[in-house]
Amino acid sequence: MFQKPLVIVSGATGAQGGSVASSLLDTGLYRVRALTRNTNSDKAKALASKGAEVFKCDLSVREDVENALSGADIA
């Protein structure tokens, strides 16, 4: 069975990242892991409701980044 590629979007609750994540989800061609520092924000919840995997990640913490990128096809 074909599995959609997993795309990592950093800053997914910001203006640019949010637009990218939403656009990717709207195509239906990708799984999206949306990286954010606050997984409880309204924007994070909106992305989750569209099908994104909302993932807590502080880009200044190496372990967070390594975990966030695990299994990614596109980052």
UniProtKB/TrEMBL annotation:
Presence of keyword NADP: yes
Keyword Manganese: no
Family to which the UniProt record says this protein belongs: Belongs to the NmrA-type oxidoreductase family.
NmrA-like domain residues: 4-74
Alphabetical list of PANTHER family matching this protein: NITROGEN METABOLITE REPRESSION PROTEIN NMRA FAMILY MEMBER, NMRA LIKE REDOX SENSOR 1-RELATED
Name by which UniProt lists this protein: NmrA/HSCARG family protein
Organism: Rhizophagus clarus
Alphabetized UniProt keyword annotations: NADP
